[in-house]
């Protein structure tokens, strides 16, 4: 896991949409999706419910989102 993956996840969680998050991050959508998949594989848990529109966070995703915001906030300080 790296800070880039945390930033990507936070963007998807906030936008609730992979396409809009990719635009915000100035990257293509497929690499964004892949990085989120790799993050989920590393954590061993699903963070997002992709079948819904807009994308929703799982319970684990909500917890991870809060922690990711804290980590990114500390890094910025």
What structural category characterises the helix and strand content? mainly alpha
Number of strands: 2
Taking the alpha carbons of the first and last residues, their distance comes to: 20 Å
Q: What level of helicity do the residues show?
A: over 70%
Low-confidence stretches: none
Compute the number of helices. Answer: 4
H-E order: HHHEEH
Strand order of the largest sheet: 1-2
What does the main sheet amount to? 2 strands, antiparallel
Global morphology: globular
Roughly how many Å is the radius of gyration?
Answer: 11 Å
Work out the strand percent: 5-15%
For the residues shown, what is the average pLDDT? 96
Could you write a compact summary of the structure shown?
With 77 residues, this protein is mainly alpha-helical. Helix content is 70%, strand content 5%. β1 and β2 form a beta hairpin.
Describe the model.
The protein has 77 residues and is mainly alpha-helical. The protein has four helices and two strands, in the order H-H-H-E-E-H. The protein has helices spanning 3-15, 18-25, 29-43, 59-76; strands at residues 48-49, 56-57. Helix 1 (3-15) packs across helix 2. The longest helix is centred in the last third of the chain and has 18 residues, at 59-76.
Task: Offer a few descriptive terms.
two-stranded antiparallel ribbon, 5% strand, single chain, 77 residues, 4 helices, mainly alpha, globular
Helices, strands, pairings?
Blueprint: H1 3-15, H2 18-25, H3 29-43, E1 48-49, E2 56-57, H4 59-76
Antiparallel strand pairs: 1-2
């Amino acid at each position: 896991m790296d800070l880039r993956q945390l930033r990507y996840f936070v963007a998807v969680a906030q936008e609730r949409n992979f396409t809009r998050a990719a635009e915000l991050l100035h990257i293509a959508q497929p690499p964004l999706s892949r990085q989120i998949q790799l993050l989920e594989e590393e954590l061993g848990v699903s963070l997002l419910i992709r079948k819904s529109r807009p994308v929703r966070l799982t319970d684990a995703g909500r917890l991870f989102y809060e922690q990711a915001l804290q980590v990114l906030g500390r890094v910025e300080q």
